Amino acid sequence: MADLNGFLEALASNSPTPGGGSVAALAGALGAALASMVANLTIGKKKYVDVEDDMKAALQKTEALRLELAQLIEEDAAAFGKVMKAMKLPKETDEEKAARKAAMQASLIDAATVPLAVMEKCVDVIRLSKGVAEKGNKNAVSDAGVAALMGRAGAHAARLNVLINLGWIDASEHRGFVEKAGAALGVMATEADRGADEVFQIVLAKVT
User: Fold this and answer.
1) Containing H/E element for 187?
2) Rounded distance, CA 160 to CA 157, Å?
3) Would residue 23 count as lying in a domain?
4) Which of 106, 111, 127, 132 is nearest to 35 (CA)?
5) CATH number, position 53
6) Number of domains into which the chain is organized
7) 8 within some domain
8) Which of 44, 66, 72, 103 is most buried, with most CB under 10 Å away?
9) How far is 206 from 15, CA to CA, in rounded Å?
10) Are 69 and 150 in contact (CB under 8 A)?
């Protein structure tokens, strides 16, 4: 809890990092951890022996996602730190201005790439949450629902962080990246919403 309190204190401070991008990754990591919990509460239970292999496979994937998303919490803060560093570069001469612009654009692409990866992994969390909601321990099905909702929150939070960085990227110089990222956001947002809604309905049917 000490680490969590420290993170929350840093989040509430006047420092720009950690910020929304790190929170997006944290939301996804929490969702992955909950999906892992449901799988763990299913594995080894005689009642669920028929789905044990499925739960073991799901667990391997959710644990990988949990670790990856936890790492992305740090990577997001580091990426934004590079943007802040680039902004402070001198801009008195034409050469300095050109160097500053190049550094800014490179750091902004990195700052957009990290939450793009977070969003993709959050969609994966939702997808895996559906499997554990359908086949996992019924006593923990509500946790599978929360896992999907956290994945959805993380996906949309990451989407906002991609968009704000895309807005600062020179589309004329980096058109391919901007267009590809924008298209991916739309696809993943739709998948996140549809997937989370499906999981929510599965869970509601089992708890009501």
Assistant:
1) helix 175-207
2) 5
3) yes
4) 132
5) 1.20.120.680
6) 1
7) no
8) 72
9) 43
10) no
